[in-house]
Design goal:
The chain is of the alpha/beta class. The chain has eight helices and eleven strands. The chain has two domains: 108 residues, Rossmann fold, CATH 3.40.50; 118 residues, Rossmann fold. The N and C termini lie close together (11 Å). 42% of the residues are buried.
Length: 252
Amino acid sequence: MDSILVFPAGMTAACRYAKEELEKAGIRVVDHPTPEVTHLLLDVPSFGTDGLLRQGGAAGALLERLPPNITVVGGNLTHPALEGYQTLDLLRDPGYLAANAGITAECALQVAAPLMTAAFSDSPALVIGWGRIGKCLARLLKSIGTEVTVAARKEPDRAMLTALGYRAVDTAHLEDALPGCRLIFNTAPEMLLRREQLALCRHCIKIDLASQLGMEGDDVIWARGLPGKYAPESSGHLIAQTLLKAIREEGK
């Protein structure tokens, strides 16, 4: 890995921790563009809704200062400025996504805890969605004694949920799970619970973890990007370890 030289251009705490982890692993890191740079490390995700880099500035202006044969590392790397560049999109890497879901689940409990008046073991929870985050969150809640109901669209998933010891409900019948609920975590990126439905559990803590809101209401907490906010060190280590794995595989 002696030929690898990384320029971490991201400005988030996670990117700074990733830099430290790469250096511990023996990867050379520079704090400014040089002709020898082989990998450009951006924040994850890398771009804002305005098309500019999350750390500020245009991608083209940054790339002009670097060699044309670099590998760009980041998240959601579909920007036109990256056309023709080799990329490592962490938000398409199965290993990164699975580990990041686990971190997100832990962070979601950190968001909920300060708002709670009862212990998790006394706060029945509804987890909407049986994807990566939903699986990690349901397991974590169950492990600390929470009574967990999981809403899943597919019948085979609901059957498996029952076998695993969860209460299962169809996402088309979420009202069945709302009475008595104290916590709702949504992971599905579509509107599934309207304001009038959520009136069935006025005193619920409602946390939406999806990329698009799935619950409607003034008291819904839209909690996005939790690993970078609540666990930037773990997030940075995951970024670095995923990059190191890719570098090792390239060298085989």
